[in-house]
Amino acid sequence: xxxxxxxxxxxxxxxxxxxxxxxxxxxxxxxxxxxxxxxxxxxxxxxxxxxxxxxxxxxxxxxxxxxxxxxxxxxxxxxxxxxxxxxxxxxxxxxxxxxxxxxxxxxxxxxxxxxxxxxxxxxxxxxxxxxxxxxxxxxxxxxxxxxxxxxxxxxxxxxxxxxxxxxxxxxxxxxxxxxxxxxxxxxxxxxxxxxxxxxxxxxxxxxxxxxxxxxxxxxxxxxxxxxxxxxxxxxxxxxxxxxxxxxxxxxxxxxxxx
Length: 258
Ligand SMILES: O=C(O)CCC(=O)C(=O)O
Prior knowledge:
Blueprint: H1 17-26, E1 28-33, H2 37-54, H3 60-64, E2 76-79, H4 91-94, H5 96-106, E3 110-120, E4 144-150, E5 162-164, H6 174-177, E6 189-190, E7 197-202, E8 206-208, E9 218-227, H7 236-239, H8 242-247, H9 249-256
Antiparallel strand pairs: 1-7, 2-3, 3-9, 4-7, 4-9, 5-6, 5-8
The chain binds 2-oxoglutaric acid.
């Protein structure tokens, strides 16, 4: 007789000990190319359709969220609530290796906070170094963790994300430590990898977008998680559709906390 696993079950075994140690030490981890070139093309096509159909309202769910007032970012296109905008986006919050990375940072009690698209426009996209939390936290009791899915190759020149490794353990924010957090930090590294790659980054590590110096958008999706007791950036219960609810199964519903 075969016993199938029943909920709750966890994904941490999907990472090696070396990967978990790297994430713990440096605050980020390259999970490799989790999407094929065909998948990236199909996702980019769906994103283009949504940008077209939502027009001025693109990203409105994010702007309306009580979580953090998120004024529209000048120089970046945004879409929000991708959970309810097609089955093609299910993988972003159910991929076992991504969930393992989130679990390594937040522990087993986590949920999806938001699933959003961000593209740095040509000539734009610089963000100050920041963390995605209001203040510092005690090392190990992390509240938020992100995964960034590359929908274009990330290069030195097209607005790739910068990260200052190990800063998730320092007890100071970039605003306090740096005269100007828009400036380059001497220890910062870039996320440089081919389209389809996914990186986990502990959202308490100092990070930010850089200027896209090319003439094409630099596209990405952020699948962003929080510990279970925290409010979500997008209230998933408010937006969930019957179609999504019926499709995603018990584990999907648990991850969304709906
Ligand atoms: O898209 C990126 O490169 C980083 C975005 C980011 O850190 C943010 O929007 O808070």
